[in-house]
Design goal:
By secondary structure, the chain is of the alpha/beta class. The chain binds one RNA strand of 77 nucleotides through strand 8, strand 12, strand 13, helix 10 and strand 26.
RNA sequence: GGGCGCUUAGCUCAGCUGGCUAGAGCACUUCGUUUACACCGAAGGGGUCGGGGGUUCGAGUCCCUCAGCGCCCACCA
């Protein structure tokens, strides 16, 4: 078979993936025998195409999976997709808007079904794209976050918490979008700087002794004020504490209270409190047992709790009229331009209204406590470890979790309320029913759904069929959770808390936090700026392996780095190098070669190469165990390119050892397979040295014995070749020079090889040499160069002498330091002495050589 | 305001618990069609490791400090 000169990935990749899939190579091996390794993929959003970040993610998950599979472990990489609750619904709503419809045209059930179909249609790409990335995940275990087992798990967890008193229903301030009609978690609110004004309002004291001036950016909320707060140690207001004010525009009398949260230096130092529409005010109201007046309704208009004049007005409208009325009454002290940050809905940009709403909450204290303990005990290893510390800090300040969302696309909350008693809530899983009858009482289902993160927090064990599943007993806790830093708090923290709560164990043993793939200039990729890099055209042009290696090259955990097309090209070239190494090998060994079980080193080059492979097997394994992908890749790159191709393969052109060459190629293909699965498998299949064998399921290479001394002698060959190349390049006399040596079995033996590698005319033994003496090697060798030409080399010699002088000086300085010889390890001191000796010897040689030149005149 | 991180060659970055004369890729210079590969081969140039101070026999690595950059969280009446 004649292989083309250039490796063309797209000719092979899809066939190779199909071969793996057909061979069931992705399924875990026999259960529980030689250890297990498991990763459950964080489920990407099912309604979107995979972006370049997922190409990185796929690589970071697939590399260790392939490595551990080759180590003989029962290995599982489980794929999934996320319904992405609110995300998907808003994408679908945009689509509806294009058709001139809105979600309010449909019932909750109709909407759910429509979004289901919409997401299902878009999910087609998902499998195709992960296959193109070479992800060796077990598709038979694919899980969607709305699969029955995930929903059931969420219900069981909710029930357990309900029974154990961790779930409560409470009226709390939520971040409410009046357009979408749903509340958001704190982390989902997007803050924007808004240029507005800050107004000062005069509230007259009821006893007529004056006014207290408060500052506000939201004057309309004054209709819901229930107190004014000042700092307890603020001398200006000390006498007013405990008095009341007459709230303008209303007939209400509200107290002046003292609370430490007030910043004396901000505004007037006096704050109006609107507990129903501001988190700080709410907290203060809790402390002081103040009433709460809901002034703004869920539709964004003023409620019936405000004077009738303002009822039903939209917030912006109400603001104008309130300001106008205040001014007329002389209660408006001042207004000044003011820029401050305001929470907005991250989808539609509507200003978020903090609003009182009945929600389901989880009491997080007991859960957080367990998680903090596990993290402090180091039961989960983090890459990098600093993320573990961050998570502990976060958990220590954790608030209760609002798990209700007022949208259709999600898992319905399995709770029903008695139509005759709004306090009477019951747990029931029959969420397909609107109303249920129990003991003659009628209950109506809660219309809310779970926050997506609530169900996905059970992902590590729900996907493995906790508690009865075989997968659960084999693969839990997971070996690794690989994810991005942005979901450390919303997801990773909750998986740990729920994992501990539900299963009693940490959900995973290690966490790898990846950094982001930024745009080439280091800025964030964004569709609107248009600097987004699509991974699939890159695969088309450079190959999936090149994309994978190009992305991990030089990347460390949790560090954001720009996309670099040159690294992709470089990796593509590397694949091509492997391809050509295989072509060469096949040419040498012939098409009929079959796998040899007993390769034996014969030459120095064999011993040297086997030592290199030995070292690389150990080093690559170590790197991969510690998820140091970039370093492993870089090491293998140099093993292949520098050691194997440039030295060993060149050596085989003089002295071929079929068994060793074949062994080395096999070992290299195996070591690189996790990084470049397609090209290595393509080569493996093309060579076909073993029948019906797949590289993906082959075993990690084992080292062969090699003679250390002989391997070191090959280094001497490299030294001589290196010096000859340097000199012949400097003097431009390549291909025309003969190397002479005196009485040396080593050169006798290695002469042909040195001649070939150094591009010499000949290598010959002589009685006494003449010409340019080699100074880098212990062996006595001369290059047969005429005096006139050789003289041009004297300046190089002078430079080398100067360098040797510097070496000797710095070593002398170190060795004459008594503290150094006394305190540094003896090994180091001996090493320094040895180095000094070598430097002095070398200098002598150089000086002698230079003198010869000068004598020769 | 709290937390985390970064600053090493022209560019993008490695450098793990302090120990040879600080590395890689790309870019650059010179040379080269040699039995796989020009997506190649050979040789080479290029760094006061952000500034200052300290600990140490020894600091890119540890500590303090200053400067610049970035991220996350909280707050913004």
């Amino acid at each position: 078979m004649n292989l083309p000169k250039v490796y063309e990935p797209k000719l092979y990749e899809s066939d190779i993936y199909a071969l793996w899939e057909k061979s069931q190579a992705f399924a875990p091996k026999s259960r529980g025998k030689s250890g297990h390794y498991s990763i459950v993929m964080p489920p990407p959003n099912a309604n979107a195409n995979l972006h370049i970040g997922f190409a990185l993610t796929a690589a970071l998950e697939d590399i260790p999976t392939r490595y551990h599979r080759m180590q003989g472990k029962s290995t599982l990489l489980l794929p999934g997709a996320d319904h992405a609750g609110f995300e998907s619904q808003s994408v679908y709503e945009k689509q509806l808007a294009k058709e001139g419809k809105s979600r309010f045209d449909f019932s909750r059930e109709e909407l759910y079904q429509q979004i289901w179909d919409f997401v299902a249609a878009n999910r087609q790409n998902y499998g195709k794209q992960f296959r193109a990335l070479g992800t060796s995940c077990d598709w038979s275990r694919f899980t969607f976050t709305l699969d029955e087992k995930i929903i059931n798990r969420a219900y069981k967890t909710f029930k357990k918490m309900w029974d154990e008193g961790l779930i409560y229903r409470g009226e709390r301030l939520v971040n409410y979008c009046t357009f979408h009609g749903t509340g958001f978690a704190d982390v989902e609110v997007e803050y924007k700087e808004v240029a507005s004004k800050i107004w000062s309002l005069n509230y007259p004291l009821t006893d007529g002794s004056g006014v207290i001036t408060v500052a506000t950016t939201r004057p309309e909320t004054m209709l819901g004020d229930t107190a004014v707060a000042v700092h307890p140690e603020d001398a200006r207001y000390k006498d007013m504490i405990g008095k009341t004010v007459q709230l303008p525009l209303t007939k209400r009398e509200i107290p002046i209270i003292a609370d430490g949260f007030v910043d004396k230096d901000f505004g007037t130092g006096a704050v109006k409190l609107t507990p129903a529409h501001d988190q700080n005010d709410y907290d203060a109201a809790q402390r002081h047992d103040l009433p709460m007046i809901v002034a703004i309704g869920h539709d964004g208009t003023m409620t019936s709790h405000v004077p009738s004049k303002y009822q039903g007005l939209p917030v912006a409208e109400a603001r104008k009229i309130v300001l106008n009325d205040l001014e007329e009454q002389g209660a408006l002290a001042s207004d000044e331009p003011y820029t401050h940050s305001v929470g907005h809905c991250y989808k539609c940009g509507t200003a978020i209204e903090p609003m009182l709403k009945e929600q389901w909450f989880i009491n997080m204290q007991p859960l957080a406590k367990q998680a903090i303990k596990a993290l402090k005990e180091g039961r989960i290893k983090f890459y990098p470890d600093s993320k573990r510390e961050q998570l502990i800090t976060y958990l220590e300040g954790l608030r209760d979790w609002n798990i209700s969302r007022q949208i259709a696309w999600g898992i319905p909350i399995p709770a029903f309320v008695n139509v005759d008693d709004s306090e009477d809530w019951i747990f029931d899983e029959r969420t397909d029913q609107h109303t249920i009858e129990i003991d003659g009482k009628t209950y109506v289902r809660d219309s809310d759904v779970f926050d997506t993160w609530f169900s996905s927090s059970s992902w590590p064990y729900a996907t493995l069929d906790y508690p009865e599943g075989e997968d659960f007993s084999d693969f839990y806790p997971l070996s690794l959770m690989e994810t991005g830093g942005e979901i450390l708090y919303p997801w990773v923290s909750r998986m740990i808390m729920l994992g501990l709560y539900v299963t009693g164990e940490v959900p995973f043993k290690e966490v790898y936090i990846h950094g982001y793939v930024m745009a080439e200039d280091g800025s964030k990729m964004s569709k609107s700026i248009g600097n987004v890099v699509d991974p699939f055209p890159i695969i088309e042009e450079f190959g999936s392996d090149a994309l994978r290696m190009g992305l991990i090259a030089g990347r460390s955990p949790a560090v954001n780095r720009g996309f670099d097309n040159r690294k992709i090209e470089d990796a593509r070239n590397f694949c091509n190098k492997l391809w050509n190494i295989a072509r060469f090998t096949q040419e040498k060994l012939g098409n009929e070669y079959s796998h040899s079980n007993n390769p034996k080193a014969a030459s120095l080059a064999d011993e040297w190469m086997l030592r290199k492979i030995q070292h690389s097997i150990a080093l690559t394994s170590d790197y991969l165990e510690e998820y140091r992908f970039s370093e492993a890749y870089e090491h293998l790159y140099h093993l292949v390119w520098d050691d194997f191709a440039d030295w060993y393969i060149e050596s085989t052109k003089i002295d071929l050892n079929e068994g060793v060459l074949a062994y080395c190629l096999e070992a290299i293909l195996k070591l690189i397979h996790p990084f470049a699965p397609f090209v290595t498998e393509t080569i493996w299949q093309t060579l076909a040295w073993e029948q019906d064998s797949l590289l993906i399921t082959s075993s990690w290479p084992t080292a062969l014995k090699a003679d250390k001394k002989k391997a070191q002698q090959f280094e001497e060959v490299k030294t001589i070749v290196g010096e000859v190349r340097y000199i012949t390049t400097a003097l431009r006399v390549r291909d025309t020079v003969t190397l002479y040596y005196k009485e040396s079995a080593f050169l006798e033996e290695q002469g042909d090889l040195i001649k070939k590698l150094a591009r010499l005319k000949d290598v010959r033994s002589v009685e006494d040499g003449n010409g340019l003496y080699l100074t880098e090697t212990k062996h006595s060798c001369w290059l047969d160069i005429d005096k006139a030409t050789a003289k041009r080399y004297s300046s190089e010699l002078a430079d080398k002498i100067a360098a040797a002088d510097e070496d000797i000086q710095s070593l002398d300085k170190r060795l004459s330091n008594k503290s150094y010889t006394a305190k540094a390890p003896k090994k180091l001191v001996d090493e320094s002495k040895q180095q000094r000796k070598e430097a002095v010897d070398k200098r002598e040689k150089l000086v002698a050589e230079l003198e010869r030149f000068q004598l020769a005149g």
